[in-house]
TrEMBL record:
<dbReference type="InterPro" id="IPR020937">
    <property type="entry name" value="SecA_CS"/>
</dbReference>
<feature type="region of interest" description="Disordered">
    <location>
        <begin position="636"/>
        <end position="659"/>
    </location>
</feature>
<feature type="binding site">
    <location>
        <position position="545"/>
    </location>
    <ligand>
        <name>ATP</name>
    </ligand>
</feature>
<keyword id="KW-0963">Cytoplasm</keyword>
<keyword id="KW-0811">Translocation</keyword>
<keyword id="KW-0997">Cell inner membrane</keyword>
<dbReference type="InterPro" id="IPR044722">
    <property type="entry name" value="SecA_SF2_C"/>
</dbReference>
<dbReference type="InterPro" id="IPR011130">
    <property type="entry name" value="SecA_preprotein_X-link_dom"/>
</dbReference>
<dbReference type="Pfam" id="PF07517">
    <property type="entry name" value="SecA_DEAD"/>
</dbReference>
<dbReference type="GO" id="GO:0043952">
    <property type="term" value="P:protein transport by the Sec complex"/>
</dbReference>
<feature type="region of interest" description="Disordered">
    <location>
        <begin position="1"/>
        <end position="27"/>
    </location>
</feature>
<keyword id="KW-1278">Translocase</keyword>
<keyword id="KW-0653">Protein transport</keyword>
<keyword id="KW-1003">Cell membrane</keyword>
<feature type="binding site">
    <location>
        <begin position="136"/>
        <end position="140"/>
    </location>
    <ligand>
        <name>ATP</name>
    </ligand>
</feature>
<dbReference type="Pfam" id="PF21090">
    <property type="entry name" value="P-loop_SecA"/>
</dbReference>
<dbReference type="InterPro" id="IPR036670">
    <property type="entry name" value="SecA_X-link_sf"/>
</dbReference>
């Protein structure tokens, strides 16, 4: 590896402190614009792919040298790279040797020899790039060789996934390969005790969900007292072993972020916050009154709804009505700003946050459903009293109001890794933003085999009832041929509404949503069986590998039905990518309606009618316009989050306050 490529891992680029991480750097607007423009230009030149191809040629040539080695000699050869990596860095000739050993090891213990495209993806990760690999191309074992190389070089390696299920699954798949070379593997899961988490991070290679690792980093910051000045960090580093609370992480060395567009972009709109409960005076009565007052307000007269931004704003008439209804209450109700915010939050709890869509009620608690993964967001709550208002609405026990102890955005957290890399099947359209914010160039990796996926087009209906009838009929028709069917819905509520339609037609099926997350592995394992119908939320999207049952390939493979478009076309492509993987046959179609959330928020009534009148391409036009508007709004939110984070950090740094 060249001197320049080693630069991000050199001492002068590191933050002084108890463990290695990259020093803070806030690129200005001109820098970000230049990087984004450079990335768009670089994509058209193809030099990254040529570099990766040449590297794979060298690995192919080195392979015969390692094939005769015994397992013990294979391990010794890998361990012999440790001092060389430490002395010379991740140099190309050493990486060629390491990748050849990893490829041979994988063939022996996993029964899978890395394809050239997987080696290309792995080499891109070592370079600190984002490898765009089509769904089903084997990203799980692609992470193996680069993780081995970085671990042998002495770096803490974090393989970051989008949830606990994938972290545990991927770690167990690749564990035999790591252990063959004498490397240890840890898994960070939700609900682990501190000692268990510490042990997971002490391993050479640690797998964990993005939120788990980021929150553990915040916990370390709290334990360190958030020392921002160089002298304070140096003193804490010296006294750490004797006096300080033991830290969880060994450092932010090398990160391989799976489904990087979801983690680094989609989830970057919301900062990560650690908070603690604070006592309040009779909050239940306050929240009950807020809901009562809000229920008497009329839309259009007293408030206006901004569904695209999931906001409600009081009109002047609404502000006056709230003041009149609470005139004699005192306390918060006597403070204009607090009174109006509480009323707006209550209106949001009543009209924008709905059971079965944004949350479910289970075990006597309001539990948030992650809009990107379809899973329960363990431990997450809404801010500014909204969570308590929803609890009051649902009649469950109220949790205490919470005070923020520490916060960080994903943008800031992941930029602190000494080397950041990622994998995704859907990152090309985000190339400029990923380069500008994270310094991540994109390398587009070719597929191992040509795709055999058939696009059967889209159908647009005027109302929900007609749509669900059409979805049920399509599922019946395809499953009758023996092919399995996967139907993707956007919410728990929608999946259960469709389930009722299928049951009414006597169609056996399985539902996978946040209510049945414990059965996820079993449901996914059977989803590719002959004639099986599976209805799923986003839980069956990213990272889900559906294996075809016996004889299914000859019948045409898995058929995917998109029953509602998402804000981002990337999420739709992830669902579609569950079928026709690695050269297998498969097909997909979309069956949607004008009442779907995306079209209601961003489509516009007139545009929807035009789309229905245009044969063939009308649905595609409506989808493109609506998703473009949604993505533009979400991108603006991310920019605002980043700006606010930068300003807050400057203010806190000036005051010497916590992060």
């Amino acid at each position: 590896m060249s001197h320049e490529r080693l630069k991000p891992w050199r001492t002068e680029e590191r933050q002084s402190g108890p463990y290695p991480e990259r020093a803070e750097r806030d690129p200005n607007l001109a820098d970000r614009a230049l990087m984004a423009w450079g990335e768009v230009t670089a994509r058209s030149l193809g030099h990254r792919r040529r570099m990766l191809e040449k590297f794979c040629d060298r690995v192919d040539a080195a392979e015969p040298e390692v094939q005769p080695l015994s397992d013990e000699r294979l391990k010794d050869a890998a361990q012999a790279l440790r001092p060389l990596f430490l002395r010379h860095g991740l140099r190309d000739d050493l990486l060629v040797r390491c990748f050849a050993l990893a490829r041979e090891g994988s063939r022996r213990v996993l029964g899978k020899r890395h394809y050239r495209v997987q080696l290309m993806g792995g080499r891109a990760l070592v370079e600190g790039w984002l490898a765009e690999m089509a769904t089903g191309e084997g990203k799980t074992i692609t992470a193996g060789p680069p993780a081995i190389a970085a671990a042998l070089a002495g770096l803490p390696v974090h393989v970051v996934t989008v949830n606990d299920y994938l972290a545990e699954r991927d770690a167990e798949i690749v564990r035999p390969l790591y252990e063959l070379f004498g490397l240890t593997v840890g898994i960070c899961r939700h609900g682990q005790k501190p000692d268990e988490r510490r042990k997971a991070y002490e391993a050479d290679i640690t797998y964990g969900a993005n939120k788990e690792i980021a929150f553990d980093y915040l916990r370390d910051r709290i334990a360190l007292g958030h020392r921002r000045d160089r002298a304070g960090r140096a003193v804490q580093a010296m006294l750490r072993d004797r006096f300080a609370q033991p830290l969880l992480l060994r450092g932010l060395g090398f990160a391989i972020v799976d489904e990087a567009d979801s983690v680094l972009v989609d989830e970057a709109r919301t900062p990560l916050i650690i908070s603690a409960e604070v006592e309040g005076d009779d909050e239940a009565a306050t929240y009950a009154l807020a809901l009562e007052v809000a229920s008497r307000l009329t839309e259009g007269q007293h408030y206006e709804r901004l569904p695209a931004r999931r906001l409600i704003r009081l009109t002047e008439a609404g502000k006056a009505r709230v003041e009149e209804d609470t005139r004699l209450r005192g306390g918060l109700w006597g403070i204009r700003r607090a009174r109006e915010e509480l009323a707006e939050q209550a209106l949001s709890a009543l009209h924008l946050f709905l059971r079965g869509q944004q949350y479910v009620v289970a075990e006597g608690k309001v539990q948030i459903v992650d809009e990107y993964t379809g899973r329960i967001a363990e431990g997450r709550t809404w801010e500014r009293g909204l969570h308590q208002l929803i609890e009051q609405k649902e009649g469950v026990e109220l949790t205490g109001r919470r005070e923020t102890l520490a916060r960080i955005t994903y943008q800031r957290f992941f930029r602190r890794y000494l080397r950041l890399s990622g994998m995704t099947g859907t990152g090309w359209e985000l190339a400029g933003e990923l380069r500008a914010v994270y310094g991540l160039p994109i390398a587009r990796i070719p597929t191992n085999k040509p795709s055999r996926r058939q696009d059967l087009g889209a159908k647009l209906f005027a109302d929900m009832a007609s749509k669900w009838d059409a979805v049920a009929e399509a599922a019946r028709r395809v499953s009758a041929t023996g092919r399995p069917v996967l139907i993707g819905t956007k919410s728990v509520e929608a999946s259960e509404a469709l389930s009722e339609r299928l049951a009414a037609r006597g169609l056996a099926h399985t539902v996978l949503n946040a209510r049945f997350d414990k059965e996820e592995a079993e449901i996914v394992a059977r989803a590719g069986e002959r004639g099986r119908i599976t209805v799923a939320t986003n839980m069956a999207g990213r990272g889900t590998d559906i294996h075809l049952g016996e004889g299914v390939e000859e019948l045409g493979g898995l058929h995917v039905i998109v029953a509602e478009y998402h804000d981002s076309p990337r999420i739709d492509r992830q669902l579609i990518g569950r079928g026709a993987r690695q050269g297998n046959p498969g097909s997909f179609e979309a069956i949607v309606c004008l009442q779907d959330e995306l079209f209601a928020k961003f489509g516009g009534g007139r545009l929807g009618h035009v789309a229905r009148a245009v044969p063939g391409g009308g649905v595609a036009l409506l989808r493109r316009v609506a998703q473009w508007r949604a993505e533009a709004m979400n991108a603006a939110t991310r920019r605002q989050t980043l700006r606010s984070d930068t300003e807050t950090r400057k203010q806190l740094g000036f005051a010497g306050a916590p992060e």
